[in-house]
User: Fold these one by one.
Assistant:
Number 1:
Amino acid sequence: MSINKILENNRQWVSDKNAQDPEYFSRLAKGQQPRYLFIGCSDSRVPASGITGTGPGEMFVHRNIANLVVHTDINLLSVLQYAVEVLGVKDIMVVGHYGCGGVAAAAGTKQYGLIDNWLTNIRDVIRIHEQEFLSIENEEQRLRRLVELNVTEQVQNLAKTSIIQNAMRTENPPRLHGLVYDIADGRLKDLQLNGEQPLSGLEHIYATEAPKGADHDSSTYEGKKEDPAQEAAVTEDRLTQKS
Ligand SMILES: [Zn+2]
């Protein structure tokens, strides 16, 4: 498909949407308040909105190879912080998928380049669950299980962040979910992780607290929303400083 075909598809989509609902784009242009944050794999066979039945405005999306939550990934952390603290998303889902090439590569020994370093995060998942992983004789089943274990570990990685730990102490904490998508039949499976207590059993190692009076001290933090008036004042401040 050439880029011209992409542009032609876009024109068709715009005219279809406008025909169905003339206010569609003007409504979306006003802003977003998505309920969900989706953290999924970059795989082209896992279209985030298609498999979840969500449309524009409903889901904030972050994708990377093998849906990893890496604590030094400024991209993921920025998406997470903004989604939780500014947009106020209610449900955060890590969505893995069976047949994941990244997961399969991590289970093997062949190098693919720079990406091997990224995939080391999945080799860490194998190390943590080595006994169970090695006990599964069938290779396909072993990789399917690794996909699930990887999602479970990434949900825990979310729970280890200061962002989620602070959000969990607010009145309306987000829920964490681990899902796996099956490319072969299109179905999403809920791994039924304990989304309210994702660190259960590991608090003594990973739980942290904001210093008293800090921005994220739970007694002052309210899962804040933007105050448009204050935002305008800040913008004006910057403009004044510039001139
Ligand atoms: Zn994948």
Note: The pocket of zinc ion is lined by residues 41, 43, 66, 97, 100-102 (CB under 6 Å).
Number 2:
Amino acid sequence: MTELRLPRAGQCKWAEGTGGNYTFPCRNRVEAGISYCSEHHALVYISAEERRRNRESTPVAFKAQRRIAA
Ligand SMILES: [Zn+2]
């Protein structure tokens, strides 16, 4: 089994790592019922927004345009 060190209650649940191997480097305290400190909460929220925007801003039409220009 992998050593999954879960964050303590009242600790930010910001996780780093991939493939099921996560660490919780953030030691900021959070209130009960809150997953992330304000810093990481913003990061989570922004990255989700960016991912959505990136998907929308790479349309197939962009490739076609470049082909015409070249
Ligand atoms: Zn945090």
Note: Helices lie at 38-56, 60-69.
